[in-house]
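Suppose a classmate hands you a notebook page containing two proteins, each written out with its sequence and a corresponding row of structure tokens. How would you begin to make sense of it? This section walks through that situation. The first entry is reproduced here exactly as it would appear on such a page.
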Amino acid sequence: MAFETVNDTSILVGEKDQGSKMWASLFASNDVEKSWPLEWIEPEMEGDVTVVPRTILDKGVNLWKDHLVGYFIDKRMSFSLVKRSVEKEWKVKGGLQITTDGKLYYFKFVDPDDRRRILEEGPIFVAGRIMVIRQWSGEVFDKKNQITSVPIWVKCYDIPTQMWSKEGLSLIGSRIEKPKCSDTMTMKMERLDFARICVEIQADTIFPTNLKFKMGDGKTAVIGVEYNWKPQCCSNCNVFGHMTRNCQPKKGTNWVQREAVQPAQSVASGGDQRDAQQRNKTVAETSQEERTSKRKTATKFCSWEGKDNKGCK
């Protein structure tokens, strides 16, 4: 193999040509067409922090606004398992693209009707665990490491017709938690026996089953609320994943200071010193007698059992 010397450094000509081809392949016309050509943007700085222009944020929101997001409240499932489960469960008419960042699962639909239907159907089961489905927003991404709120669908019964409006349903949902939206049939008033409303609950939500509204002229309307699913939540920890009654907070160790053993006070002199020596002698003799008595008792026990008492010492 031939060598070429450049700046007194020997390089294999074959390896040099191969490296040049690999570098050039990064900018092949076909690959560039499949990627985003990037450009230089002068950063605006505030100290060591870069200010993101509003135009970039708006374009990012527009890129992700039609995605749905799925996440598990407790243990996450593998991507392949989630992909198989949603494809089997949803049966979309158009295409479906699924991706994940390790904590959230992102779903992009070709058919808007598929997206609307799946959002209205709410959570699904994946290997026996609930996966929450909600509309993408920047807030979802910001709180992906700590789920403090969960959207759920509720049914509201016996709604007076004069409250069957966007504002009336918003007021009803606000009595439960933060209202998000209603389903299509509720909006079109095609089903009037109950309204289906999506509300975003917190860990300390009370879940009322009856709501009272003063309608005027001395009349009070009572609206019933039904929950198809209540996520496990703990009002002590303010997190989802376990019930308050099953909460087992870590118990701190209570250290109790042990009282120090005070040494016997020394006696100055004279008769007091002789009395202290006599007491110490008496205690020593008593201890010796007790040890002798225990050995004799052990020897008798071995004799009763018919054993050699050599080991009973």
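The notebook's second entry, a different protein, reads as follows.
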Amino acid sequence: MVAPVRVLPTRPGPVITSPLCNCNRFQLSLPNIRSTTKCKWGSYVAFASCREREGHGSTEEEEFKVLTADEFASLPAIVPRGPIAILGLGGGTSAHLILDSWPSLKLEGWEIDELLIDKAREYLGLCNLERSNQVGGVLCVHVGDALSPSATVPGGFAGIVVDLFSDGKILTQLEEVATWLELNNRLMCHGRIMVNCGGVHAEATDPSNVAAQAKLSQKGDLWIQNSTIKAMCGAFPGNLSWKKEAGGENYLALTGPMPDLDLWSNLVPDHLKLNVKQWKPCTLMA
């Protein structure tokens, strides 16, 4: 195992070491920050209201994005140095929170809705992220299909955030093993994928399915019925973790070996420490 790498943070904060990633290109900075979710919420309400008037979503959908974005901000602590992709950039919620916590990162974001990008630049300051900050952090925005083979970079991504929904439902392509194998090929050595897998919804017309969900829910195993997690188990047997979104109903998945949760918790900003300790190994057989 490669020895822990010690680096200076890009903002005032403690100097830290981490053995979580055994790649010698590991990058880590731990700025002293606070969660920006609440202070940004007023802007998101205004933005979501504009989208709703134009027939492109609702305030509730934007709130859902804010919840998940906080989870994604923990990913940079356990991946190698390199660019991180956001597939499903939306209004830039995840990009804002990731760069708030890890200001030196290079982000590559894909979003198919050009109108959404235009409004995010106008209402949410997305354009500010597209300019390099003082420590080199920046977001490069791509308007197009996030699952297109062209959505990649030379050398691969250190991490990939996947947050792809249409009409409130996760894309059907994400329920296919082949999709995850292809996305895995876009990673560099020791890279990881973190995914918003959506929730679990029983078919109201199928009493047996409702009964099965109730039984699984009592055991805390309702995640087993998530179709995206099932597909990912097939693509990454023995190398997948899961958790329930903090404060929400969705499930998240993480590829790669199960991280040391105590070490991971020590590497993230304070408001994320408890969240990362909730990850569990996925034992679902493909």
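A careful reader of the second entry would note: The radius of gyration is 18 Å.
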